[in-house]
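We close this part of the discussion by returning to an individual protein. The encoding preserves chain order, so positions in sequence and tokens coincide. The sequence in question and its structure tokens are set out directly beneath this paragraph:

===
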Amino acid sequence: MTSLPLFIATIIVVSSINVTIGCDDNADCDAGLVCSKDECLIPFGSPLTCTSGWDCEHGVWCRRHGSAPGKCDEDHRCPTSRVCTDPGTECDADNICGYKEGETCYGPCMKGLTCKQGTCLK
């Protein structure tokens, strides 16, 4: 008795937004995206879903609400006064209210710092 190998092919279709590098203005991006620091990214308050903060325009974080998909709805961009509302943050060179060295990183750390084990450090 001979047995023939059985091949099963599975095709997975993933619907995604084309978040890409290399834009000069919003016209270079897919509909619904904005050109932010040469990248086509999801803007603050968009109904589009995100999987990480890297999907959102600079200064905006992707936040999950329970089991729902992430949304770019956590804004850490500096206000026009350049005075951040959280005393643990300061407006940095990238115009983002980043958490200072030694602060718990509830959002982005200031430019030059990295979130390590929950704390912004050099």
Confidence is low (pLDDT under 50) at residues 4-15. The radius of gyration is 20 Å. The chain has two domains: 1-75, 77-122.
